[in-house]
Design goal:
By secondary structure, the chain is of the alpha+beta class. It is built from 8 helices and 9 strands.
């Protein structure tokens, strides 16, 4: 949940006025587009949920979803850059307490990742609410993308304290997916594009599994070798090329202003 927010004083921007590093600018555009894609795929909860992305070239700095902002209104310009001390950088920014409590420990503990996405999407949240449930990682082509890469975390209430974020870090380990019981899912990746693609594939895998379970029939498992192949290909980016560009073309055709 994302109900707890606080406005904290900004600190000066490390950049000269009017000058913005190209890598930061591109990261902001791509990261803002991710929020709009999540709306398009109906995986959002309005102004709730939150994402984070490492700020290129600025160690310890994160770009975070702005608080009290509908995902359909997130732009490159209103993403909040937060420094290592937890204060917004270079302007007014509404920092979501739950976002910082979850994302800062995970981003700090995982130098291998660029992006972390936390959502309460309908299918992944529904399955994570079933007692004892674990994703059938051989149940569909999309599920096999996550073969050997899912972890699980019990429900502890609305997150506002960093110590719960630290426990999530421990539960996630070196995996890509952390299912949060009765809550949702947290997914991490080493590029913005790959992480968004994985989020889409994960929610589709959960949708496929829930639909299959409703038939009352046994799910036919993908062979282990094929599941491992899918997972390896996804890490090596074989299925990634063009995904984000294609989705941004769709957003641009709708004249969406995510890049502003």
């Amino acid at each position: 949940m994302n109900t707890a927010e606080t406005a904290v004083p900004p600190v000066p921007s490390p950049l000269d006025a009017g000058v913005e590093d190209a890598a930061i600018r591109q990261a902001r555009i791509d990261f803002a587009a991710v929020h709009r894609i999540v709306v398009h795929e109906n995986m959002h909860e309005g102004t709730w949920n939150h994402f984070s992305c490492k700020a290129p070239g600025r160690p310890g700095h994160l770009l975070i979803t702005p608080g009290q902002t509908h995902f359909s209104r997130v732009t490159a310009g209103n993403l909040v850059e937060v420094g290592p001390d937890g204060r917004p950088v270079g302007g007014e920014g509404r920092l979501n307490v739950s976002a910082w409590a979850i994302h800062e420990p995970i981003q700090r503990a995982r130098p291998d990742i660029m992006c972390a996405l936390h959502i309460h999407a309908p299918y992944s949240t529904a399955l994570a609410s079933i007692d004892g449930w674990r994703l059938d990682e051989r149940g569909s082509q999309n599920a096999a993308v996550f073969y050997g890469n899912c972890a699980y975390f019990g429900y502890e209430g609305i997150v506002t304290e960093a110590d719960e974020g630290e426990r999530m870090v421990e539960a996630l380990g070196d995996k890509r997916v952390l299912f949060l019981a009765n809550h949702g899912v947290l997914l991490v990746g080493d590029t913005i594009e790959k992480t968004m693609l994985w989020l889409y594939q994960l929610e589709r895998a959960c949708m496929n599994e829930l639909l299959a379970l409703q038939t009352g029939r046994k799910i036919r498992p993908i062979p282990v070798a094929a599941a491992r192949h899918n997972a390896d290909m996804s890490v090596e980016s074989a299925g990634e090329a063009g995904y984000l560009d294609g989705m941004k073309e769709m957003l641009d055709a709708e004249s969406q202003d995510y890049h502003t």
